[in-house]
UniProtKB/TrEMBL annotation:
Gene3D superfamilies: sav2460 like domains (2.60.60.30). Transmembrane segments: none annotated. InterPro entries: Stress/Tellurium_Resist (IPR051324), TerD (IPR003325). Belongs to the CAPAB/TerDEXZ family. It comes from Streptomyces omiyaensis. Residues 23-166 form the TerD domain. It comes from the Bacteria. Residues 171-244, 303-324 are annotated as: Disordered. This is TerD family protein. Residues 193-218, 312-324 have a biased composition (Low complexity). Pfam families: TerD (PF02342).
Amino acid sequence: MTELRKGENTEVGSGRVTAELRAVGDQVDLSALLVTAEGKVRSDDDLVFYNQPSAEAGAVRHLAADAGIPERIEVDPSALPADVDRVVLVGSCDPDDATRTFRDVGEVRVSAVQQGADPVLFRPPALTDGERAVLLMELYRRGPAWKLRAIGQGYSDGLAGLATDFGIQVEEPREPSAVDRPGTGESGSTRDTATTTALPEPAAPAAPVAPVAPATTAGSPMSPMSLRKPPLGRISLDKGGRVSMGLDKKDRELVVTASLEWDGGSDRRRRQGADLDLYALFVPASQALRGTNAPGTLAGSRHVAQGEPLRPGTAAAPATPGTAKKGKGADVVYYKRLGSVKSRPYIRLDGDSRIPGRESLRIVRPDEQGYVLLCAYSAVSNGIGSFRSFGAKVVITDGRGSAVTVPLFENTRTRYWVAIALVDFTTADGATIHHIEAYSARMTERRPVLHPDGTIEMNAGPVEFKRR
């Protein structure tokens, strides 16, 4: 394998190149730009990404991640028209959440694979100055040959700002901001919008490029391109996985539904008992903290929730251990406290099912929510079988085309509580759903506790038996 450092290049053949993106930490999206020798796209059709997965009759294709295979861009250099000088690969944070930056990403790796050749790997330098997009690699012409160059240039205004620099019209205007310029350290400091963003050969100086007018079709301006992610469709989380669900937090008609579903697993299990209960532990936005630990982290008994209030001036971090609401006065919606969608907590359970089926709760006013932890309780009368043996899972939908299943993977016995999923509403433009699957200690009836910073403490809440 050939590993490139920032600014290095290597020659490749004319066969199809597949670029794969892998990231540790927050999700990073992969896209590609078809760029002319002037450093600009020819039209908005030259951006290949999740909303527009193909260009030039499939010469450049976006392939979504699937079943352990990472997100990919496929390029057939021999099928590109002569006026496409290079294909630039771009990594970007979620465009629906302006709070996500590469500071939340532990490592980014992009590899280019070509049949019959060694893979080419590039690890961009750490981006810690608020960058939300990065130029990863470019596949570019040099006479009749093709080369790959490692770039590693960060942008603080994300895919929208980067795409605009290359001549693409985006749907919403962006705020001016300072972005990185190549050559000012590992990640740079500011960006000069008067020079081309496509890097030249190392020996050649950057040439100024005249501003390009918005792309047109038949003499009239094109409609701005939407970078907002489409609905998720139906997906199932892997163990420990997470996914972002875009939500309009000003939409008063929006209803997020979270359901605990179980089928009893088998006739024997159903005869023995299959009474599960859905609990929603919640921290309202007025009390939520952005802590130093990632939301969904399992905390110990001495954990002190500290951090910046989600709403400055409305919340304060507990000063001593034990100040989280751990007793029966804790913020919770369950079969004895159904909640309300017309007033706080803006969460309501539809009722108690004592046979296999479904218990659902509705969450409205996402702007009023901080963290919601979805838990299941197994009544003592059910016996010692695992939650998985009941076929239990959580399904979260937004009514707008996104449905996320959070399954269980572990077989446990004599465990009466499981924290299944955390819904983090503190992101700017939606919610992040985390797979948790944390179980109570053996034979313990204590309920989990949700701290104001979104961390979870097992075996710390009240004991409340339920018998048939």
